[in-house]
Amino acid sequence: MENLGQLKIQQMVFMIIAVALFFILATLFYFSIKTANLYQASIESERDRSIGLIIKLASSPELSYTGVSNGIDSDKLMALKKQPEYRDYWGVNGIIIEKLYPKYPDAECNTGNYPNCTKIILFEKDGDVAQSASSYVALCRKDSINGRAYDKCELALMVIQTLENEF
Amino acid sequence: MNFSKKAQEEMVGFVLIVVIVSVIGIIILGISLNRPRNIEAQTSAELNSFSSSVLSYTTNCEIPETNPRQIKELIKDCSQNDICSNGQNPCQVLSTTLKELVSHSSYRVERGSYTRYFKISVLNEVSNGTYNDAITPIQEGNEQECVRKLIDTQPLNIGLAENSIFKVEVCYKD
Asked: Do A150 and B70 touch (CB under 8 A)?
């Protein structure tokens, strides 16, 4: 009779341990999923913050193309490229604009090949770059067909390089 | 003998409970895995910059001659059945250009790519909250493979309808 009692107690202890283990595992599983989502959300938030900086720079009067939302004036970029005093004005380590579509010869833009080129390096400071962020922009310029001027906008990627934790 | 029988009965009972719980668990797991996942779409600053840049893109369709149309203008030309000065159909130019723009961006859908699906549509509001497609949507990939979905809408003030929107949906594997 005493043995049966001990057996019952043992059985109950095993069950309690099993149930407790189950709940601990389920809680761990739940929190690991939650943490993964949190990590993803923090990456998204960091990316959105850096894109916010790009949008801010793109909408500055020195770069923006009047009348086009999210538009950058490539003629202004080519003019600013020759102004070294602007290098410290933007507060970043480098600004590069890369044309995505349509395709042009894969070359850095200069006065000789512009606009038939792919990459406009506004400036790029020496030293290690800790982070870079990019966002899409409409790269626009004035063009003409049979003497009639029009706005020609292309798809481009604006890349900003910074030192650590500048975003 | 009596003790042994009782122990056997208890063991059978315990095994029965474990089996029933396992079967119920498997059934619930099966149902939840088979159920089409309703993913909540999120907004994205990057997708927003992509869609606004796409709308400003200048195409090679001129209406009239020497007046190249931007994507947002071409949407109107397409819905009004206009013709480009070189004889091309604006809807065809629109579709080809949008596909090319997506394929040259990080949102391209290809084998091994992170992006699994994209859809670009132009919608006209017909009544409160109800929208109809103004042009044939451009889409690629399989929406069923989506785990994370991004969405962006841009208002189109081009006189198509009282409320028209340019909608871009992109989704990822994880």
From this structure: no
| Minimum Cα–Cα distance from A40: chain B residue | B174
What are the strands, taking DSSP E only, across A74-147?
A: 94-101, 119-124, 131-145
Taking only the tens place, the pLDDT of each residue in A46-74 is: 777 788 888 888 889 999 999 898 899 99
> What is the ipTM, given to two decimal places?
0.75
- The total number of structural domains in chain A stands at 1
Q: How far is A12 from chain B (nearest CA, A)?
A: 12
| Distances in whole angstroms, Cα of residue A83 to Cα of each of A79, A90, B43 | 7, 13, 37
Higher confidence at residue B132 or residue A4? Answer: B132
Query: For residue B28, is pLDDT > 90?
Result: no
Residues A132, A76, A98, B70, CA torsion sign: positive
Residue A19's CB is within 10 A of a number of other CB atoms, namely 10
Task: Give the pLDDT confidence of A119-139 residue by residue, as tens digits.
Answer: 999 988 877 666 788 899 999
Cβ of A150 within 8 Å of Cβ of B104? The answer is no
Please tell me which residue of chain B has the smallest CA distance to A71.
B53
Q: Which distant-in-sequence residues (6+ apart) come within 8 Å of B61 by Cβ?
A: B68, B69, B74, B77, B84, B85, B86, B88, B90, B93
Q: How far is the C-alpha of B79 from the C-alpha of B58, rounded, in Å?
A: 18
